[in-house]
From TrEMBL, chain A:
TM region(s), chain numbering: 12-33, 102-122, 134-159, 179-197, 238-264, 284-310
A GO term from the CC aspect: plasma membrane
PROSITE patterns tied to this protein: ABC_TM1 (PS50928)
Protein name according to UniProt: Peptide/nickel transport system permease protein
Organism classification: Bacteria, Pseudomonadati, Pseudomonadota, Alphaproteobacteria, Rhodobacterales
One GO BP annotation of this record: transmembrane transport
CDD domains assigned to the protein according to its UniProt record, in alphabetical order: TM_PBP2 (cd06261)
Species whose genome carries this gene: Sulfitobacter marinus
Domain of life: Bacteria
Pfam families tied to this protein: BPD_transp_1, BPD_transp_1_N
Localization terms from the record: Cell membrane
Mode of membrane association: Multi-pass membrane protein
UniProtKB/TrEMBL annotation, chain B:
The keyword Repeat is assigned to this record: no
Species lineage: Bacteria, Pseudomonadati, Pseudomonadota, Alphaproteobacteria, Rhodobacterales
Protein name: Peptide/nickel transport system permease protein
Primary location recorded for the protein, binned into one broad class: membrane
Protein's membrane topology: Multi-pass membrane protein
Gene Ontology biological process terms, A to Z: transmembrane transport
Subcellular location: Cell membrane
Automatic annotation (TrEMBL), chain C:
Name the UniProt record assigns to this protein: Peptide/nickel transport system ATP-binding protein
Domain of life of the source: Bacteria
Cellular localisation: Cell inner membrane
Signal peptide as annotated in the record: none
GO CC annotation: plasma membrane
Keywords: ATP-binding, Nucleotide-binding, Transport
Membrane topology value: Peripheral membrane protein
Coiled coil: none
Xref: InterPro entries: AAA+_ATPase (IPR003593), ABC_transp_ATP-bind (IPR050319), ABC_transporter-like_ATP-bd (IPR003439), ABC_transporter-like_CS (IPR017871), Oligopep_ABC_C (IPR013563), P-loop_NTPase (IPR027417)
Residues in ABC transporter domain copies: 8-261, 279-520
GO biological process terms, semicolon-separated: peptide transport; transmembrane transport
Protein's UniProt keywords contain Ion transport: no
GO molecular function: ATP binding; ATP hydrolysis activity
Amino acid sequence: MHPILKLIAQRLALGLLLLLAASVLIFAGTSILPGDVAQSILGQSATPEALANLRRELGLNDPAVTRYFAWLGGVLQGDLGTALTNGRDIAESLGGRLKNTLFLAFWAAAISVPLAIFLGLLAVRYKDRWPDKLISAVTLTTISIPEFMIGYVLIYWVAIKWRMFPSVSIINESMTLGAKLNAIAIPVMVLTLVVLAHMMRMTRAAILNVMQSAYIETAELKGLGMLKIIRKHAFPNAIAPIVNVVMLNLAYLVVGVVVVEVVFAYPGMGQYLVDHVSKRDVPVVQACGLIFAAVYIGLNLVADIVSILANPRLRHPK
Amino acid sequence: MRNIPLSAMIGLFFTGIYFIMAIFAPWIAPYGMAEVVGDVWEPSSSEFLLGTDSIGRDLLSRMIYGGQTTIFIATAATILSFTLGSVMGFFAAVSGGWVDQVLSRFVDLIMSIPSLIFALVVLSVMPTTVPILIILMGLLDSTRVYRLARAVAVDITVMDYVEAARLRGEKIGWIIFRETLPNALSPLVAEMGLRFIFAVLFVSTLSFLGLGVQPPQADWGGIVKENKEGINYGIQAALYPAYAIATLCISINLVADWILNRTTSLKGGRG
Amino acid sequence: MTEPLLKVRGLKIGATAYPPGEKPVAIKIVHGVDFDLEAGKVLGLIGESGAGKSTIGLAAMAYGRGGVEITGGEVWVNGRDILKENLRSLRRLRGAEVTYVSQSAAASFNPAKKIMEQVTEAAIFQGKFTKAEAEARAVELFSKLGLPDPENIGNRYPHQVSGGQLQRCMTALALCPEPDLVVFDEPTTALDVTTQIDVLAAIKEAIAATGVAALYITHDLAVVAQVSDHIMVLQQGDMVEYGTVDQIINAPKEDYTKALVSVRSIKHEEKTPTDNPVLRVENVTARYKGTNFDVLKNINVDIHPGQTLAVVGESGSGKSTLARVITGLLPPREGQITFDGRVLSPDLPTRPIEDLREMQMIYQMADTAMNPRQTVGTIIGRPLEFYFGLKGKAKQKRIQELLDEIELGDGFQDRYPAELSGGQKQRVCIARALAAKPKLIICDEVTSALDPLVADGILKLLLNLQKIEGVAYLFITHDLATVRAIADSIAVMYQGEVVRYGPKSQVLSPPFDDYTDLLLSSVPEMKIGWLEETIEHRRMESAGN
């Protein structure tokens, strides 16, 4: 077998193992911790009978290991359990919300990734001159403010003062794409700002790193122009680090989505998760946590695999 | 103190102000933390410098007390994450072998789940009290400190001067405290600033989501949550914490940058 | 008289340094240098690190590396002053009229592109040849440079060929566009000595065959003597002496040049072995954890009290591993080590303090061998405190004695390593080793990171200390000149084995085994025509077999 296939197979297996371990961790986080789930759901004033009933209903009397495998078995068959609060099937409630979340994340990524790479290149091109300095100052600021605050600042100015886009992003199936995009304009801006800074900083660092290599000097001493050097010599070596940067930030975006959805009352998975954390609806939290972890691990896995594929030493072994 | 650049000076100045306000909050704040003193969302006046909040409390006092809570929780969480993370990281690097493997793989696992998601999962069954918030944030963030401390320590332990100390017959205490630690301190101190910023953002986010500091206690994230409806009427109350957090975090960033620059150039020596 | 190909007048080069926490300062690297180079001739630029040789070489392409800037003077190439030209016309010069060969071909080749594409790129881009012509020329150059399988080697990626081969590919890259001038910047310095001779011969032949002119930059006078017509000696940005190779080698005028020529002229009388070696290595075999081959195979050597055993070999020969085994950092799989009559415990933690004290170590990189956060006083004082319990005044007094012994004198106790020069750092490391009053000091390539004159001083100091203190040395090196200068006995290592071992006079006299012969004959000698003689000799020998 080609060594590169072997390496990729290894990474895939490792990713699956990590996901499995993450599921254990999520389950353990809600089950083995000192807090009694039944008690925290019903509150201090609950009668012992009610507590006992709820414990039985939740299967809390079984050992944790049994409950974990029962849960995992269900998850593998697509059964995420039922919500405690309203008794509805979690998988069913999640379906539409997951789609909405991905819709939001997709548009945020579609705008922020090209923009970040472009600005990163710009910062490299004008290194230590004013565009570079301006970009890093803006970056520093956006890194220092939490997502939800960027959200409200934008709502205040864009939605309330300038009346350009709505401040609440409620979408439903019957809306046209244009209407949907109009509704999510501000949240997309917020997410873009949030990941843009990190992504651009890291893109800049990755490209600078490549541009300082000796082989770039060789190309310069061949008399090649800057554009040709970047296209032919820097780019092939910068792909892997840049993809890494992008994936890392998309993973970051997944987390940002949670908060942004709450700010804009957007009917996505993040809002659903936060809502059910306050209601102490453990099965919903477990299901959402697992999905978020899976997306996160998956994105990191893609970054790993791209690095392997882009490495000439691995692609063309001795 | 001769060669402090302007940016670091500004950073130190604002960081100092925020910490002083946090420590002396009861003496500085014009009104009590939860005292209802006026009407809902009064505009700023000589009586209420920043106006009042959604139920008529003085916003400036809320901001000062909120800063106290936020900074206290962030500081405590940073201390916890730092102590735990760097001790474990150093321990792993100096021990090597299976100890290092087990610790590092466990940290990888924790980090494979985003911190916020992990915190939400845990908070779904735990009561949200200040000590639990501190412990949770401290533990989650210690993974990042662990990685840095381990990497820095591994870099140092392969140096010839550490080998020379081992060949001399020095005990592990000397190697850690006299040979490794003095050289690892600078990047760790700079990282401490970044971890603190992260903790401020994290606790504010949790409070905003209603899963952090519980009312009536004030904190910056909570103030946003309490006053967010005002935004729709063009009332800025919810934005003040944003300005506070931004200035604090930028200031600390400036200081951390300076420390890092100062120390890396010391480490490099000539050239 | 016709105009020379390259004419440099009053060349001044500067750079900006960024000292920590202070304002940037302008520093001068080259302060006004003049020279000419005729078409088809080779000029050697020689000097120690910091002499400005590479900077001058790159100035021939009007290029400043990093923050380096050409601040004044004229550089005439083919009759025009290239310092006055704009970037567009400089681009037509670089890679067409003047090309460059760097010290590290491994870093200078793009890892993501095939060798052929990179070798022919400049020639095609500059419009000198079509793709087919350039590739034909590259293959021709590959074969002229003695590369194996010249037809197909261009289809490989840089990491798929060896370091010596890649350095030859870099030469092909520079020669492919038929330039008028090639700048060779230490092209063989990173190579092992047995590889260096072949690459050197290949470069010389290629220069002769193509009739190109060259600037050959190196710190090794013996190397430059083989390839150049003229030599220019540089010291800290100033020209010290300029002359023909013959004049510089055989009749140097300036003191600095004389010192460079006579370096390693240390006279050292070989001592006879005793009956009681201080260290005896018997049947030692070792391998690293997680590997499945032995890096040391059945090693047997002795070191006698107050004498020097030089262990010589190329990179990967296992010589540094031997030091790790002796110090206990890598316990051997088989065999034992006897020190001063007692068998040493195989691994470090179980050795008694006395054993540790009596065996000290000095490293190649003095920079990383000293804790940057400790003062010289602390560094030297720690062994005194640790082994002898010295404190206060007594310790201070002893530290000063040691500093005197290594010829550093007063005022060094409170300095940090970063404030010392390379040679001073290595001296402090020697003092730290001496502080323990050892019977044996292991010296691992202690002079190879230093400039020749500084290295010479260190070697003299080590020999002198041996006389006074009666300490034995295990001297690990790849440099045969050093071995000749200081060894009493020699062990030649090759692929984990000792292939030749005995008193110096015996090891260095014929009849030789094949490897020792190859190694000894590959060391450049400061003699004109040495390269041709050696290559010719080897050809005759291989023809005879």
